[in-house]
């Protein structure tokens, strides 16, 4: 996992208590207390991600009903910024962890691949905030994106082959060029101790 | 402070001879002495046209020079164009001087600041990658403000210190003069940076930092320059603490004021373009005029004009690009680029010419040399220090290599020269020395550093800009990302970058866009949609290109209307694309010009009928070539293209029929497999085996299918296979069968082409609005056929 500083933990703990209303655990409804979240098109998926047992490393499947602070921290740790002193292997592992988190968000039925339907749902939700965009356009976009992913991942397809869905390996390939390490992080209020250059 | 424009003896010299001859002929032309002796059929009126003629000539010379330079690819690869232009300027100036011993045209500050600089800065602002710019704004501001002040102070003071030590000999300078000089030589120049960096292609973060710095430091430069200029005028003894404080305050006023002016004009511009729907022809004019006004207004109020026009461009780009029609957008883009490029060319050429002016040359080895040394050294130190501080706050760290490029890329250019030319000789006694030094510094940075930066970048293996095609997935995931991150920020109770950005985009969507964007634009203005559009267009182009490569578009030549196309993508031949339609169509980063006139010019490789076929295909399929003006001569109106609505319809409808191939196996596709097999031709050949859409049940009876099989390489159109196949089709009118017999799209069976970048998203072509793709099924019954689409019966 890696480390979060003590200050960050304290801050998150305070936040946890806020969300849970001083209870030891949070439920899905607790997230309703966060007003800004309402406008986020991916709200449901994100909240769900907090309870996803795969992310919580508890089980390969299923949703938890409530999570405690430790689980909360576990999820938050996916968004740590990279630390300066990580080596190649750690970086790679780090990156994979983050991508796995994303993958779980897309793959709602836990079957290990993102099918066209799931993809469509994601895209629809994503574009749902734009009131002028019709559902069909969203759908076509999802289809187009799927085809693109297929061409990246599979290259030449046999005529009888049907592309079933994006597996995690394919997902990695799609994200290969993109610097997820630098983008997928949230800066916590208290800064990390200034890294030494040596 | 004005330098008068001096006559251009070159032109005069050239024309003196014929003028003299003309004078002889028209002996009666001396109006002063006596009246004309006879009627002059033709007279030579040089003075009448002198000024505009000379200006036009110089522009012509500069542009011709550009052509000449680019003839030799080897040279331009190594030497930056700006350097070549300076050398040319020196050369030309030398000729003039040798011929007449008079100094020729110089780059006057007025011309520079009023006419040559604004287009360049506007171009920079209008095409500024906003996300990148504002994402790195903190960094940019730090370098621009603190860095420039640091450079100015240290350079000025060090020179003063050296002067005191006596090495420079006797000069009539005080500390303030040195500080003044320091402030004008300290600023990194946007023109030079652009000129050099655009040939180097460093990664975008690095570029935006250096370039952003060069733009935003104008405020600092303006303030420092004015402050020290007036201090020098007041005299060193009269400067009080109050004046210093005033100087600092003026910095904030100038910079924020300039920005504010820019934003106000951007707002105006966006608002105006919202209503220009009926005056499309002059739409581009608004962009230029209003932006220019912002520049002049800021200049009038003694605020930072560069900041004003930069922020005008930066803030308006989104709304203007949404509001104005495609043709205007293209016009704006090209005009801006042309003006900017032209200005740049002229600036550098005149920098060279202005140097050949013996009056101004004062040589002081120590001063010049030390200036060069100091600006380089202090730049390096400044960059290193600031980067060290910044890296604590930045996620993407700036490494040593980046710092090297940043230090080395801090070029000085024409702005410094113009500023120094503006100095008042009476107040700044050593003006000529300053001018000479500035010229040498500018030449050194542009020529020497410009020449060597490319090898340096390569040697250091700086991360280059990745030129990647826009990928739909990236956009989608990127968007999802942003939302996720802001959600997490909300949950963890931070006010982070994403939170702010989210808030801004909400505000923008609810209020700003409503006010400033046309209603129609608001609907369709979505980045993801745009990428999708673009990609589809590219596919269509690739399709045509493929046709060209084969030498013929025979594979879509057919007089039947329910033709399904089979394209063999597996063996792309080396293409001779240059003189082809697709070469023309493949214009980078621009709305594609499907100009029929242009298309017609490139007919060499395509036979006439095929050309028409292509045209009709494209027209039907994705986009109508928008430039198909109805040929009424009218300067005030472009006849509205009624097809625009149809475009949207086509787009939506076509996209709906996309790739059902990804319907998971749960939707049975067993049946089609059988159909598929019956159409397989040669197994030996790697080819497309496709099932053609089950055509409209009516069609087989209306249009007898031709047994049309091309014997060419890999082209086989199962649509025109034996008649028995037709019967199968008839049995399953698509909208009547149930979901289980969904035929996967032809594309699903296609061997995806050689390179994953091509043909990703081609949907099966339908050459008729009547044919219905079977996989529409799953989405529900097809709506009524589009009556307004042109029939393809005349193919």
Automatic annotation (TrEMBL), chain A:
This is Calcineurin B homologous protein 3. It holds the Pfam family EF-hand_1. Signal peptide: none annotated. InterPro entries: CHP3, EF-hand-dom_pair, EF_Hand_1_Ca_BS, EF_hand_dom. Belongs to the calcineurin regulatory subunit family. CHP subfamily. It is a lipid-anchor. One of its GO terms (molecular function) is protein kinase inhibitor activity. SUPFAM superfamilies: EF-hand. Keywords: Calcium, Cell membrane, Cell projection, Cytoplasm, Differentiation, Lipoprotein, Membrane, Metal-binding, Myristate, Nucleus, Protein kinase inhibitor. GO terms for biological process: cell differentiation. The keyword ATP-binding does not apply.
From TrEMBL, chain B:
It comes from the Eukaryota. The keyword Iron-sulfur does not apply. The chain crosses the membrane at residues 53-71, 83-99, 111-128, 140-163, 175-197, 204-228, 248-272, 332-353, 365-388, 400-421, 433-453. It is a multi-pass membrane protein. Residues 59-459 form the Cation/H+ exchanger transmembrane domain. It catalyses: Na(+)(in) + H(+)(out) = Na(+)(out) + H(+)(in). GO terms for cellular component: brush border membrane; early endosome membrane; recycling endosome membrane. Keywords: Antiport, Cell membrane, Endosome, Ion transport, Membrane, Phosphoprotein, Signal, Sodium, Sodium transport, Transmembrane, Transmembrane helix, Transport. It is found in: Apical cell membrane; Early endosome membrane; Recycling endosome membrane. The keyword Ribonucleoprotein does not apply. Gene3D superfamilies: 6.10.140.1330. One of its GO terms (biological process) is regulation of intracellular pH. Belongs to the monovalent cation:proton antiporter 1 (CPA1) transporter (TC 2.A.36) family. Plasma membrane Na(+)/H(+) antiporter. Exchanges intracellular H(+) ions for extracellular Na(+) in 1:1 stoichiometry, playing a key role in salt and fluid absorption and pH homeostasis. Major apical Na(+)/H(+) exchanger in kidney and intestine playing an important role in renal and intestine Na(+) absorption and blood pressure regulation. This is Sodium/hydrogen exchanger. It comes from Chelydra serpentina (Snapping turtle).
